[in-house]
Amino acid sequence: MKTLTLTRPDDWHLHVRNGAVLKTVIAHTAKQFARAIIMPNLKPPVTTVLQAQAYREDILQAIPAGINFTPLMTLYMTAATTVEEIKLAAESSYIHAFKLYPAGATTNSDAGVADIKTIYPQLAALEKYDLPLLIHGEVVDEHCDIFDREREFVDTHLVAITRDFPALRVVLEHVTTLEAVQFVEFAGANIAATITPQHLLFNRNAILAGGIRPHFYCLPILKREQHRLALVKAATSGSSKFFLGTDSAPHLTTLKENACGCAGCYSAHAALELYAQAFETAGALDKLEGFASFYGADFYRLPRNSETVTLLKSAWKVPENYGTGDVSITPLLAGEELNWQLQ
Questions:
Q1: CATH 3.20.20.140: does it fit domain 11-307?
Q2: Which of 155, 161, 178, 212 holds its CA 20 to 30 A away from the CA of 20?
Q3: Catalytic residue (one of 247, 286, 298, 326)
Q4: Is the pLDDT of residue 198 over 80?
């Protein structure tokens, strides 16, 4: 196959930050995706409809002229989130979900929720107003092995959330384990999951074998090969419960390559190319369009896109970095060769 034409896809989990970083990275997403669910974990977090409106305007102003791209905004769930704010979000045309971070689980999650039971009134409101809950599914417990945090969250919290709020639409973000895949597969139609390119392509050896490679470090962390294979099987199965969410997370190179490097892989520069590589390796390129272009839109009850994008089977080398001046971002697979290229 020399070319691959897809209905223009969407990214259902994306970080674009703000300021100079936003201006550096947004074009990478906008050139290939029609829409993207924008994560709200800025400093300070985006917790109100008015803050999301201002953030949305910043994103729109940063998109290069002539590119059609729609940011889909989310709000950051905290213990202080009010039912009134949830109602306002439901009435808004540009708020599409709330994001739940366990406090301290990942980048800029300090304002997250320490005890999920305390936000049951908010979850009831989300269920009432039919707003999806997007979950970073990891426990925050110093006694829990970092490679087990997702599994523990599923067993300890996700089972309870889906039992106590059976009509709530839930996306378990960036799933990384066989256990999370199995939970989503056997849950109701209102439970779905996103899968990142790095978790489809790499296992934990990519971080640690042959030296510490910080640009493969993300949270949830890469797992054993058996879990990667389970993710590939889910993504390429044709199940509408699994769809594309890059979790592309730009950090300055200086913040990744230090004694306490930030968690997050920057993949927006080549997102579709990376997914195409994973699906081609699995012999399932025919399943990529559903995963990338259809299932997420259907879950969020948005129309499927009508435009198309085309990937060429043409090798190219990923730049060592993106940005200028004080903004330098090292992309996933910097300096390495990819086999697919967006036309």
A1: yes
A2: 212
A3: 247
A4: yes
* C-alpha distance from residue 100 to each of 109, 207, 262, 280 (Å): 9, 27, 20, 33
pTM passes above 0.90? yes
**Spatial distance between the Cα atoms of 242 and 11, rounded to a whole number of angstroms:** 12
Would you say how long the chain is, in residues? 343
In Å, what is the CA distance from 103 to each residue of 65, 122, 150? 38, 16, 14
- Read off the pLDDT of residues 124-164 as tens digits, 9 standing for 90 and up: 999 999 999 999 999 998 899 999 999 999 999 999 999 99
- Active-site residue, 298 included: no
Domain extents in the chain: 11-307
Residue 102 forms beta bridges with which residues?
113
Query: Within a 10 A sphere around the Cβ of 263, how many other Cβ atoms?
Result: 16
Alpha helical stretches, state H, the chain? 19-30, 49-62, 83-91, 120-129, 149-153, 159-164, 178-186, 197-201, 205-208, 225-235, 253-256, 271-281, 288-289, 295-299
Categorize the per-residue pLDDT at 88 as very low, low, confident or very high, splitting at 50, 70 and 90: very high
pLDDT in tens, 211-264: 999 999 999 999 999 999 999 999 999 999 999 999 999 999 999 999 999 999
C-alpha to C-alpha distance for 343 and 332, rounded to whole angstroms: 20
